[in-house]
Structure formats: C-alpha cells, structure tokens
Queue: 2 jobs
Job 1
Amino acid sequence: MDVCTLEKRGNLFILTLTGEDEHRLNPTRIDAIRSALNRIRSDTTSLSGSVLITTAHGKFFSNGYDLAWAGSSPDKIHLMSSKLRALVGDLISFPMPTIAAITGHACAAGFILALSHDYIVMRKDRGFLYMSEMNIGLKIPAWFMAVISCKIGDAMVRREIVLKAKKITAKQGVKAGIIDAAYDSVEETVEGAVELGEKLVKKGWNGQVYSEIRKGIYKEVLNKLGADETTDDLEKVAIASSKM
C-alpha cells in the first residue's frame, strides 16, 4: 500500500500522506515523500511557476518519529533521523513555494515537517501543533530548534511550545504568526491551500532563484542538518517509546 500519493493539478503538485494512521515518520514513509519530491524535480515544466502542497488523510498530519519502529536500535534511530534531515533539506532547497495543509494533529517531528514548508494552513475544528518532547522526556535536537527559531519569531510563543509543551490550535497559531490561515473543515483547508497555491503560481517565479533565496533565509537550519546529537541517548529514546 502506498504511504503517499502525488497529484499534478495544472501547476500545483499535491502530495498526500495516505491512510488513517498517525503518519509516523519512519524510513519507508520518508523515502516515499522524498521520491515524490524527486519526481517533481525531474519534471522540467515544474521549474518555474509551480507550487507544492503537502496534506494528509485522517486525524494526523504526522505524529512525529516512529519511535515504536526504532525501539532502542542505534542503527534505526540514526537512520530515521538522517532521513528526516535529508527531507527537510530537500524542502528548503525545493524549487518552488511549498504549502502544508494541516487537517489534523502535527506533533514533534511532524510539526517540524510542517514548519519546513513556506506556508501553513490548518483546520480549526480539530487538530493542534505540539512539541511533545518535554512531556515524554526527550531533548529537542539543535536542528529542530533551528527550524523553530527561524519559523516562530515570538520568544514567548517559543517558550510556550518548547518549554511548556503547549498544544497550539489553528486559531492560536494564526494569532502567533505560525499559521497563515485557519479554516472550518478538512475540505475548506485543502481548498484554501489550493487557492493560495494558485495565487502563487500566477507570480511565475523562477524556481531556482526561489530556492537560492530560501536557502539564504534558512542557512542556520541547513548548517545544523549534518548531525543530530539526541540520537546518541538511546536510553531516553527507549523510555520515550514506552510512553507512546
């Protein structure tokens, strides 16, 4: 069964995480997402005036790393981390604007995945943004913090999210400047992402130029993607897995 699908609708590419599960980020799912992104890159008609929308079926956009899959295996934990870092690098260098259409919960690494898009729209009748690490006893890696610092400008909001593990609703996310727009339902959220995407398509921006400018904005994140110091603390990862 495919864990994601890719649809081309004019100059919009819609990548959907399929199924009613939590869309945990394990190597299989991350590889599938990266494969879809590579297919878009290989489409020579997509290098200018195109937009990527990422969304998901079910209650979760993504509930983060698949800690149950990784268990206490050093190789699995390092592999999962390295693949997500590669995916975030792909998104930062991607040659078009990107939109995350969040129709459910986005937690921990799933929240980081959403933040790695240029724009975020979200449904307001269900779902929250949540960094769970404080509550499950895991250190937040430096590269996660780099993404959070670049994308969430208000220090008090960062404190609430990181040090108090506050669950942020769509309405709160709009007020905090994390979310660009909130909608009443799944359908309206996806429609809102498509409308935003169509507006961006009309700009006709050069994808390579867009990519280079974005890489300059998120240089600090790119500089941190080479390592993840938290993967060395296997005991804490195992304890956190038991709490899932």
Job 2
Amino acid sequence: MDSLPLELHAHILEFACTDDGTTARSLALVSRYVREVSAPYIYQSIAISGMEQMSELVGRLDVIPPHLRRIRHLFLSDWTRSQAKERVVRASEDAQDGYEAEKTLALRILALAAPMLETLAVVVSCPYTGPSILGSLFTLPLPRLVHLSVHGFYPFPNVPRSMPRLERLHLSGNRNPHGLLQLGSLDTACPALTHLHISGLVAAVSFAEEMRAAFEGQDDHATTPRNRHRDTTGAPYRSPQSGFAARSSAPAR
C-alpha cells in the first residue's frame, strides 16, 4: 500500500464505497490517512430511512463543504421499514408535526444531494406528506441523474429538462396514472429517457387505453413510444430508432 500514489488509493476507495455507506464509515476508522483520502466518498452511496436517520444526516451534511457531500447514489425513505410495514397513520396534532418534520428533512436531503446524484430511489409512505415530497422532487434540477425509482402517490414529471440525463424511470404507487403519457410531459422533463417501468396498477382501464393509443400511434401528444412502432406481444417495448422501452405491470393477484 505504501508504494501506491495517493491518486490510486483514492480511486480504489471510490470503487469500494458503493454500498449503503457502511464501508466508507468503516474506512474512516482505519487511520488518519485513510480517513482523509476516503473523506470525499463517505457520502457517495447512502441509504436513509426514517426521521432519526434523516435528522442525523442533515446535521452532518449542513456543516461540511460541498466537495465532501458528493452523494451519487441515494436510497431515501420517509419511514423506517417497521413503520412502513405497520402503516399506522395518526391524525393527532403531534403526529402531524412529526410528518411535517419528516417532509422538511427529506426535502433538505434531496436538495443537498441533487447536484451530484446519479441513481436515486425514493419511498414515501406517509399519505399526508408523500405527494408533496415527490412533487418537490420533480421540480429539482437533477443534472446527473441516470436512474430514478419512485414509490408513492406521485405527480407527473413536467419541469422542462429537470432530468436531462435520466435514462431509466420506475414509477410505483399511482393505481391509475392516466395522463402520464399525454402532452409530452415525460419528453419535456426527461429527454434522454429510454426505459419506463410502471408498477402497482389496479383497474387502470383509462391508462391501458392511453398505453394502447400511444403504441398504436393514435395519440399525437403521447410520449411513449415516440409514435413510431408498436409491439403487442406483451414484452417490454423497444423502439429501434429511439431506443425507448416501456413496460407496465400490475401487482400479482
């Protein structure tokens, strides 16, 4: 190790720190030298769930310079796994204050991470604040984002070129996202989109008709599949010219 230059050490540590953040935190304890070299990658890949973890992360990110908070890969959930599993939604005033605090923390993390994010998975479980979190997400400039997965009741992305490099988009949580493929909103927000996966559909007859019209080229305003080709085999669609693939799936019965 002593024979390698600092640049190679940094390159190795960059590749090593691609889990939920555990590796980076462990490396920081090895020695002062390793801590300094790995510092830019401590927050490179992180997974955060629930208000306690969100609050701790915001407290750390707010006091470090931007070059040390280069978050490239992020999993963010407003609730912990146990909270999401129980799905107990309280209506008391104290509970509402807690939900608002979760929303504030989640939005702060997304704002701080946005400039460098490449992959992002967001799970919002609170029915009071989830839609507004996702709505705010779709207004953020995400210049480097390539892969986005969203679970929760989502609005439709429509801010022009907010995600100019996004190639893969997975949307889950809207049982009938009628209108998603119309008016060119996806093309506007995600001009480089090549793969669209929509899951969690239930009795989505109007969306099925929207998909059919898009594939058959009957809707001049539909985003998918660029009004060029159609595929009725049930397999993920791929346009040879645009490279766009679309797939929808309903939950198993």
